[in-house]
Every structure is written in structure tokens, then in C-alpha cells.
Amino acid sequence: GYSFMGGGSASNGGSLFVILKRWNERRGKNESVFAVVDKANEITSQIQSGIVFSINPPAIPGLGNSNGLEMELLDINNEGASEMQKAIFDIQAQAALNKDIASVTSLYQGNIPQYQLNIDRNKLEMQGINNTLNYYLGQAYVNDFVDFGRIYQVKIGAESKYRGNINDIMKLSVKNNDGEMVPFSSFTTIEPTLGQASVTRYNMYPSASITFNPAEGVSSNDGIKAAEKIIKSTLGNTYAFSWTGQAYQETQAGATISLVLIFAIIVT
Asked: What is the C-alpha to C-alpha distance for residues 262 and 266, in angstroms, rounded to an integer?
């Protein structure tokens, strides 16, 4: 009752769209969009090389990424990426015990192997070295020049073969204010660490996107209440949260609708 179509890229991953056929070609609950999502999740749950899950598109096109309840978890206390990842795992474990929540999904990755460069800033200041590491490992724009009627940019940076390995950094040297070549190993140490592939922020805080999917027969309002209860009981005041997408619109409209009904009764 469906066909496949290749999709664009999602955050930290790829996507595949499943196009459902017309209603008259799909008979019974086993061919509904919810059944298709369940079947896809059952199949992809066996994949160990990545995180794969299926979502239903939002009821209002363009408002959010899925039909679930989208939330931004905010690291208000600057706990770090690893603690954020642990918090998401704790939320998922707690949600599995809640009958109102079918699943909790997130593309957040806070345990990606990285290297941290510990640089002695005092030595840098004494030797008069500035911004050199950025120029070597990245690029620095210098100026433009015109040739053959076209404008070209001039950028400086080390060739890829001289910065393809973490140990290559220690082999780099830079000229100080006295004209002497100073190796990076004299003021830099390398420390393996874990972190994010890309840093996202929401309301100026480091954040992680989470989607709560209410159980079958549970309203979005009850799902929102259950999700907020899970967040507060699991994380306390360590993290804050903010609804986004359709869930945000619903939470904002709730109080307004109540006021409208009250005034409508008064007027009537």
C-alpha cells in the first residue's frame, strides 16, 4: 500500500520518504500510516550500525518535522554534550514505562569521539603567536585578485596531507616575534574527548531536539502533559525545555481558547 522515494538530508543523517497510495487502494488498519510506521520501525530496529526510526509528517505542512510532539531540551546549566546524551537516554527509559507515550526519538549525538587541544595561553602570549592554528587547520581569507576577467579569492591554509592526522598538529611550527620557528608541541597537548558533531542552540542555550510520540488513542494534550511530567520527574531543575512546532502552537492556544470560551459564555 505504499511506494518509496529518495529524500534529502536530515539533521546528522539521511531520510527516505514513504508515499502512501490512495485511500481506496488501502483497506484495513494494517495499511494505515500508523501501521506503516510500526512496520518500518520493526524492520529497522535490527540495524546496529545507526539509529533508524520512522515518523509521521506533521498534520500542518511546514510546521515542525513530524506529527509527534516536538520539544527542545535546554542545557541551562552548561552540563555538556555527554550529560545531555545521558539525559535523553534517561527520558527514553522513563517514557518506556509511561502508557501515554509510545516512543521518544532524537537525532542528538553527544558522544562522538573528538580531540581537544589544551593550549598554554601564557606561552602563546609571551612568544607572540596569534591565530596560527586556525590558519593551518582551517582557512583564512586574505584578499581578491582579478585574472582573465574573473575575480578570485586568496586563502591561506595548510595542505590536507599536512593536517589529516591529529599528530600532524605537533609537527607544525610557527614563527614568533623574534623570527624563530616554534613547534606546536612546545605549548600544546592533545586530549581525547567526546562531544557533538554540530552544536545547536535554542533561545541561546545549547539544545537537543526530542520528539514524543503519544500512544494510540492518547490525545496530543494528554501526551504533552505526560511528556512534561516525565521531564520534571527525570531531570528536575537541571535542564529546561521548550515546546516547538505544533506542540508549541497547542500549548500557546490552550489558554487563549479557555478565555474565549469564558467570554463567549458571559456574552451569551
From this structure: 6
Give me the residue label for grid cell 511528556. 227
Q: What is the pLDDT of residues 94-139, one digit of tens each?
A: 999 999 998 898 889 888 888 888 888 887 777 666 667 777 777 7
Q: Is the dihedral of CA 87, 88, 90, 91 positive or negative?
A: positive
Rounded Cα–Cα distance for residues 103 and 179 (Å): 61
Query: Rounded CA gap, 199 and 109, in Å?
Result: 10
Q: Is the pTM of this model over 0.70?
A: no
Q: What are the cell numbers at 36?
A: 506503516
d(CA 36, CA 40): 6
The SS3 call for residue 1 is: coil
Euclidean distance between CA atoms 221 and 62, whole angstroms: 21
CB atoms within 10 A of CB 129: 18
b or e along 143-154 (b: 16 or more beta carbons within 10 Å of the residue's beta carbon)?
eeeeeeeeeeee
